[in-house]
Amino acid sequence: MFETEEFRELLEEVVSKEVRRNNMRYNAAIIDYLQQLASNNERVLMEKEFEKAVGFRRGAWDALRSAEELTRDASVYASRQGRPDLQLVDIRKAYEAKFCQFWPFCR
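^ thats the sequence. predicted structure below, dont judge the formating
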């Protein structure tokens, strides 16, 4: 699910929308990084999700909401440094600050 081109396009849409909201630009490596994190964790995470009742399972839309929140947090780091562009280092910093609070970007 997370390795598909469709998910990538949705991820790009969410990230770019959040970045534009903050009048910023972003490095395309951010999309690669987030998609890789989600894809690498997919098998393990989906096994856990299938154990849950149907109404409580998470999926692509939950992942996109997490990407939006992660991008929002990372934008704060870039803004504090006075940069008009969001970089991979900002995403990593936001990810580390809230380690494992962004599903599916961690196990």
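The longest strand covers residues 25-26.
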